[in-house]
């Protein structure tokens, strides 16, 4: 019997390949499914099942394409949702035979009402592993406020109460030596304090996970899991509906998104489509020359998450500027979070645009050392675009917190006629922030190269630190 975790860092997402005696199952696949098919072919295995732990919000699952390409059955836990595709709606406790092993569905409502975990039982009848989706993470549990975005009567308090019961009655009674394989790790917006670790034993989680404390009352639990939640990215409900209703094949989406456009064709598409240009190059390179209106969301970062956070509508037309050879990667990663309306990419990149005689813009960046020099001679205004929790932990004295996560609200704090110096932790988010605001007419924003890390290393700024009060967390 084989179990492989396929972890995708930019989404902090774990999919799983399970195989026994020539039969395989995939749990929570990403949208591009060919890698799973290749894995099975290399092992002379047939993919029999696609198990879904719930209707995902943070990415579009590959369940539909994978079933079409392999003939596998799609399995969900108990749900009242009618899907736009054929699926087995499993019952609590139902077992599915996989080679010499079996996989038992354990219905664990709370993160969503259909949320289910899958218990792997080996050929000897031993319970070995639990694939927990967004019900139980390493160090955390799934947030119980997302399903209400789709079903209004499901309040977060009701869902949190269900989650408490699911954890206590369905998961915690299992053997301590069971391996927990969660759906996400640190960096995912589906939880708030997940560990960097991506597996653990259930016994260790009972000792270390705040939400599994044996002495917790249901009221304590509800308070703990709801405290500190921030609004989820705007694309989440749209991804849920795509996962329920169905979607266009990812192969077709990527093919359309990788149409090579000459500078003239690119400009024409921009003029007639109301498209947003997403320039995926390194922030430092982007700042030296870009097309007016471009959003710089670097591909070498949490690309898909920030696209979904800053562009609210997944149907938004998009044009791509990318480093040569990475265009398909960009289109694929956009499709992972449901952005299927990519119209193509600039053939030859910015160099071709400039060679065609077309205009570019630049963004001014300063080092932390230079910023310190400027601050010595005059009063300056600093924008800190990190999350509020990061800002509260430590920040430059008198800096204004304008989180990128809540760009619309943050913009209200900014005077278009005033100059601001903008930083994040390392420079990735600050360039996203500055580039988007530049596209909206904010021309007096200067990026701080290296972000908070460089500012602290310069030792020339007073840093205010905050110590959180003791709580249930």
From TrEMBL:
Keywords assigned: Metal-binding
InterPro entries attached to this UniProt entry: Metallo-B-lactamas (IPR001279), Mito_Persulfide_Diox (IPR051682), POD-like_MBL-fold (IPR044528), Rhodanese-like_dom (IPR001763), Rhodanese-like_dom_sf (IPR036873), RibonucZ/Hydroxyglut_hydro (IPR036866)
Gene3D superfamilies cross-referenced by the UniProt entry: Rhodanese-like domain, Ribonuclease Z/Hydroxyacylglutathione hydrolase-like
Residue span(s) of domain Rhodanese: 271-362, 376-460
Record-linked PROSITE patterns: RHODANESE_3 (PS50206)
Record PANTHER family: PERSULFIDE DIOXYGENASE ETHE1 (PTHR43084), PERSULFIDE DIOXYGENASE ETHE1, MITOCHONDRIAL (PTHR43084:SF1)
Name under which the protein is recorded: Rhodanese-like domain-containing protein
Species the sequence originates in: Aquimarina celericrescens
Source taxonomy: Bacteria, Pseudomonadati, Bacteroidota, Flavobacteriia, Flavobacteriales
């Amino acid at each position: 019997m084989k179990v492989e975790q396929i972890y995708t860092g930019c989404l902090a997402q774990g999919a799983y390949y399970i195989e026994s005696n020539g039969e395989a199952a995939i749990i929570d696949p990403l949208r591009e499914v060919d890698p799973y098919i290749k894995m099975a072919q290399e092992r002379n295995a047939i993919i029999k099942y696609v198990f879904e732990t719930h209707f995902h919000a943070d990415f579009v699952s590959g369940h539909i394409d994978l079933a079409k390409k392999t003939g596998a059955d799609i399995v969900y836990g108990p749900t009242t949702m009618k899907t736009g595709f054929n699926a087995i709606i499993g019952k609590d406790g139902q077992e599915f035979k996989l080679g010499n092993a079996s996989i038992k569905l354990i219905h664990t409502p709370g993160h969503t009402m259909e949320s289910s975990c899958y218990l792997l039982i080996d050929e000897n009848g031993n319970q070995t592993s639990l694939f927990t989706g967004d019900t139980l993470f390493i160090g955390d549990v799934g947030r119980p406020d997302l399903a209400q975005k789709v079903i209004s009567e499901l309040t977060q308090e009701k869902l949190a109460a269900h989650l408490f019961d699911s954890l206590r009655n369905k998961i915690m009674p299992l053997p301590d030596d069971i391996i927990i394989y969660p759906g996400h790790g640190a960096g995912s917006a589906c939880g708030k304090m997940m560990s960097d670790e991506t597996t653990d034993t259930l016994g260790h989680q009972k000792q270390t996970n705040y939400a599994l404390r044996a002495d917790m009352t249901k009221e304590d639990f509800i308070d703990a899991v709801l405290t500190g939640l921030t609004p989820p990215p705007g694309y989440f409900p749209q991804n849920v509906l795509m996962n329920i209703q169905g979607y266009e094949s990812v192969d077709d989406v990527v093919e359309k998104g990788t149409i090579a456009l000459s500078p003239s064709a690119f400009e024409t598409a921009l003029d007639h489509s109301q498209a947003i240009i997403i320039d995926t190059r390194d922030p430092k390179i982007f700042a030296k020359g870009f097309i007016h209106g471009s959003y710089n969301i670097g591909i070498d970062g949490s690309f898909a998450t920030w696209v979904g956070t800053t562009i609210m509508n997944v149907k938004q037309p998009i044009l791509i500027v990318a480093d040569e050879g990475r265009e398909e990667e960009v289109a694929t990663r956009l499709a992972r979070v449901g952005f299927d309306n990519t119209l193509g990419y600039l053939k030859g990149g910015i160099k071709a645009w400039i060679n065609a005689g077309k205009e570019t813009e630049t963004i001014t960046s300063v080092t932390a050392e230079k910023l310190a020099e400027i601050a010595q001679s005059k009063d300056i205004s600093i924008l800190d675009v990190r999350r509020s929790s990061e800002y509260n932990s430590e920040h430059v004295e008198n800096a204004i917190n304008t989180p990128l996560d809540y760009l619309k609200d943050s913009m209200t704090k900014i005077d278009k006629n005033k100059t601001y110096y903008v930083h994040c932790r390392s420079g990735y988010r600050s360039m996203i922030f500055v580039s988007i605001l530049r596209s909206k007419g904010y021309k007096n924003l200067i990026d701080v190269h290296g972000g908070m890390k460089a500012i602290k290393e310069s030792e020339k700024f007073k840093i205010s630190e905050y110590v959180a009060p003791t709580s249930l967390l």
